[in-house]
Amino acid sequence: MEYVDIVDTQNNSIGKASRIDAHDKGFLHRVVISEVHDSKSRWLLVRQAKDRQDGGQFVSPVGGHVTSGEDPKDALIRETWEELGFKPTKFSYIGQTIFNRYILNRQENHLFMVYSIHSNAVPKLNIEAIEYRYFTENELKKGLKITPQLFGDAFHFVVDRFFPHLRI
């Protein structure tokens, strides 16, 4: 069973719970999220599998729980390996924010710890995603405005909080 640290709004650990209990009871816990940019400054996004949060929509390519006692940077490396098949060596911390929603019959009260990875590695997707695509910033700006339904709620949330320049 996977355990996560329960945190307060300032990211101080105040307890521990199973991931299932954290969702069942709506406890705030850490999740790493990362955008991936290549050397051409394109954004890598993945289309989620239908049975996942934001199924069928494009989302940030890396997202996963920080296990109890795990350093968020180690979680970022682990999640990138699990979801994209490579270990990032060049990344930076962007910031954190709370994302709380009810989806797939559970309460996801997540402290998003957002990063940016710079890599030209070719993604090797796991079962959570069905495809990947690179977007230029202009393509993202247009897509977010003209076809917002192509992008998941969590991605819209991250864009609004950390990348508002993508809104035209």
Automatic annotation (TrEMBL):
Record-given protein name: Nudix hydrolase domain-containing protein
Top-level division of the source organism's lineage: Bacteria
Gene3D superfamilies (alphabetical): Nucleoside Triphosphate Pyrophosphohydrolase
Residue ranges of coiled coil: none
Keyword Protein biosynthesis annotated: no
Molecular function GO labels: hydrolase activity
PANTHER family: ADP-RIBOSE PYROPHOSPHATASE, DIHYDRONEOPTERIN TRIPHOSPHATE DIPHOSPHATASE
Record carries keyword Hydrolase: yes
Keywords assigned by UniProt, alphabetized: Hydrolase
InterPro entries listed in its UniProt record: NUDIX_hydrolase-like_dom_sf, NUDIX_hydrolase_CS, NUDIX_hydrolase_dom
Annotated organism of origin: Candidatus Roizmanbacteria bacterium CG10_big_fil_rev_8_21_14_0_10_39_6
Residue ranges annotated for the Nudix hydrolase domain, each copy included: 27-157
